[in-house]
Amino acid sequence: MSGTSVWDGTTVWDGAVVLAQYLTSTDELLGKTWRHKASRPTCIELGAGCAAVSLSLAACRRVSAVTITDLPDMVPHLQHNLQRNADLLEDVPIKVAPLRWGKPDDVAALGPSKGSSKKRSKPHFDIIVGSDLVYYTNSEETPHSTLLLETLLMLASPGTLVFLSLSLHHNPEEVSRFLKCAEASFTVQHLHDQLPEQWRVPDVTVVKMVLREML
Question: Are 55 and 24 in contact (CB under 8 A)?
Answer without folding.
Answer: no
